[in-house]
Automatic annotation (TrEMBL):
It is found in: Cell membrane; Membrane. Pfam families: Peptidase_S26. Residues 8-162 form the Peptidase S26 domain. Keywords: Hydrolase, Protease. This is Signal peptidase I. One of its GO terms (molecular function) is signal peptidase activity. Gene3D superfamilies: Umud Fragment, subunit A. The gene is lepB. The lineage of its organism: Bacteria, Bacillati, Bacillota, Bacilli, Bacillales. It is a single-pass type II membrane protein.
Length: 172
């Protein structure tokens, strides 16, 4: 085999390995999702593309404040975890209480805080989570249609906004 042919073979191997690694990462570690609707504004806006981490919850438990992807038969939802398994939550006068203690929702602006409304005491079953969108006035979430979210339905944690390019950011 000539030196030129040997180089082509090496390049071919490198490309195959790169494609295989990309496939494995895309299938098992990271994936992308497009935000549909305005329920997570201002954190995430309609049409933004996000990368979500599919492996993080195999290593750790979902935590309060995480922006997660929830898999449902009809479509996936992007929501923020508010309540954890076994907790009791309540919203009075737009303030969130967890197990009777006031919790500061630093990820919301004043307008969205006021739009939350009141929620009587809700006890979250073990193995389930309570989620809400950041745009509380229009969000379909645990309050009004999604109900409690079982841990198996949470398929990833949003990590980075990748499109549009002007909006690149790490989600919080």
């Amino acid at each position: 085999m000539t030196k030129e042919n040997s180089e082509w073979v090496e390049w071919g191997k490198a490309i195959v390995v790169a494609l295989l690694v990309a496939f494995i990462l895309r299938s098992f570690v990271f994936a992308t999702s497009i935000v549909e609707g305005e329920s997570m504004e201002p954190t995430l806006e309609d049409g933004e593309r996000v990368i979500f981490n599919k492996i993080v919850y195999l290593l750790d438990e979902p935590d309060r404040g995480d922006v997660v992807i929830i898999e449902r038969p009809s479509k996936n939802y992007v929501k923020r975890i508010i309540g954890l398994p076994g907790e009791t939550i309540e919203i009075r006068h737009s303030e969130l209480y967890i197990n009777g203690e006031r919790y500061e929702q630093t990820f919301l602006n004043e307008i969205d805080l006021q739009r939350t409304g009141n929620i009587g005491q809700v006890h979250i079953p073990e193995g389930s989570y309570y989620v809400m969108g950041d745009n509380r006035a229009i969000s379909k979430d645990s309050r009004n249609g999604l109900g409690f979210i079982e841990e198996e339905s949470i398929i990833g944690k949003t990590e980075v906004i990748i499109y549009p390019f002007s909006e690149w950011a790490v989600t919080r």
